Amino acid sequence: MREHKWRTRYVLVALACVTHAPGCTGGSPFDPEGTDAGGAARDGGVALDGGAHHDAGTTPDAAGPGSRDAGGIDAGLADVGMLPHDAGVDAGGPDQATSPDHGTDLGHGPLDAGTDQGADAGVDQGVDGGPLMSLCAPPTPGVVRFVALGDGGEGNDAQYQVGHAMAERCCELGCDLALYLGDNFYDDGVSSLEDMQFDTKFEMPYAELDIPFYVVLGNHDSGGLGGAGFEFWRGAIQVDYTNVSDKWTMPHEFYAFVREHVTFVGLDTNALMWSHDVAAQRSFVREAIANADTDWVIAFGHHPYISNGKHGDAGLYEGIPGVPIVSGGTVKSFFEQEICGNVDIYFSGHDHNRQWLPMACGTQHVVSGAAAKTTDFRGRLFGGGLRHDGPFNDDSTPGFFWGEIRGDTLIARFYDLHGTLQFETVHVR
Fold it and tell me: 271 with 302: CB under 8 angstroms?
């Protein structure tokens, strides 16, 4: 059992210097010489409206560079058991002898195309035009910055808008990587490496982002009756796409990688739903967590352990207990044996909304499944309120999570599809 405790402070997002607005100083939300208006990103306040069902808030017009991590993926992961089944992946990506060179420093190139640096900076917005690279946030050693989002596989306008907003915020604040949380291709996954959905539902919507996307599978990625998830051969195609794309990174259906002082563990929760290959996944995850010598361990997968969304909590998915393939009973038991209390944070999608949930079973839980659409919380309300009384629950707009880990401190934010800051919290582990 990993020993950790959190100190949580919620921050009023309307404070003038919370995201490097003009006139603010300092290079990142954690810079002690930065936001001196009480240290807006550090010194407290309240979340918008106290929590549930937030409408889009406002964020200061943000300009001025942040910073990004200069470190790279630990090149020895395959040798220390961080990849299952001898997957032949070095530096968190595909084997460099047989695939595009992701490099040992994944994702530190400049953004491919236009962002506006956050606040009407006049830089071209289009995919065909590029920002001034010197204006984008540079790497910072010892710091990990990332976005997390899931259920993006639509290829619709909302997915493109979220992709553009992420590019803007990543250029402004810095991003080293993305956690891509499954249901990557609606409704039935992909059928081959030549499937055009790889372009229309991934490469094109995120063309402005030049960072590695660490991808896991959702039920729709394994097809079967419109997304029931039992055609497991479809998931293997997404693993193989790692050798094709410069951005897509999924060396196995479940895997782990290290970035600076953070170990990330990617889960195949769809396989757990079907009790498929559970022993192998359990053995790998147990070993990866036990061998982690980093300060942080973060897990990410598709299905949530707890959620205020329509799918609900593991073991009670769809409000139907006792039928593991439907209710997620195997997911629940796997988490309680392997994940709860052993990882600091678990990121998931599946429910098409965004939630910062309360601590449960010794782990912080975050749902970020609104990369392309939303579904509301109606139908899973108990006693006139949400099942879990977390500080942020939004089912009104697509959006994404952005986080920065510096030392023992995480600053966590949710942005909407326009790049507007809606929620911010600071955790100290």
Answer: no
Burial class (CB in 10 A: 0-12, 13-18, 19+), 209: buried
Share of the chain above pLDDT 90, in %: 58
Q: What is the mean pLDDT of residues 176-204?
A: 97
- Name the percent of the chain in helix, strand, coil, to the closest 5: 20, 20, 60
Write phi, then psi, for 90 (nearest 5 degrees): -110, 140
Residue 191, CA distances (Å) to 199, 221, 231, 235 in order: 13, 10, 11, 9
- pLDDT for position 413: 98
Q: How many residues does the chain have?
A: 429
Instruction: Report the C-alpha gap between 73 and 76 in whole angstroms.
Output: 9
Which single residue is written with the structure tokens 């001898």? 86
Give the separation between CA 186 and CA 189, rounded to whole angstroms: 6
CA distance 80 to 159: 37
User: Helix (H, G, I), strand (E, B), or coil: what is residue 235?
Assistant: helix
Which residue type, as a one-letter code, is found at position 202?
F
Least Cα distance to 368 among 310, 296, 300 occurs for: 300
SS3 string, 293-342, reads CCCEEEEECCCCCCCCCCCCCCCCHHHCCCCHHHHCHHHHHHHHHHHCCC
Q: Is 323 left (phi over 0), alpha (psi -120 to 50) or beta?
A: beta
Residue 188, C-beta contacts closer than 8 angstroms, at least 6 positions apart: 220, 223, 224, 226, 227, 231, 234
Rounded Cα gap, residues 188 and 229, in angstroms: 8
Q: Mapping DSSP to helix (H, G, I), strand (E, B) and coil, where does residue 80 land?
A: helix
Confidence class for position 374, pLDDT limits 50, 70, 90 = very high
The secondary structure of residue 385, as a DSSP letter, is B
Please report which confidence band the pLDDT of residue 395 belongs to, taking 50, 70 and 90 as the band edges: very high
Q: CA-to-CA distance for 353 and 53, rounded, in angstroms?
A: 10
DSSP alpha helix (H) spans, 123-195:
157-173
Two tokens, residue 107: 């994702």
Chain center to CA of 76: 24
Q: Are 266 and 238 in contact (CB under 8 A)?
A: no
In angstroms, what is the C-alpha Rg of the chain? Answer: 20
Q: Cα angle vertex 263, ends 159, 112, to 5°? A: 35
Of 316 and 367, the structure prediction assigns the larger pLDDT to 367
Q: Would you say residue 22 has pLDDT above 90?
A: no
pTM above 0.90, yes or no: no
List, for residues 295-352, the tens digit of each pLDDT value.
Answer: 999 999 999 999 999 898 999 888 777 777 889 999 999 999 999 999 999 999 999 9
Residue 389 has pLDDT above 60, yes or no: yes
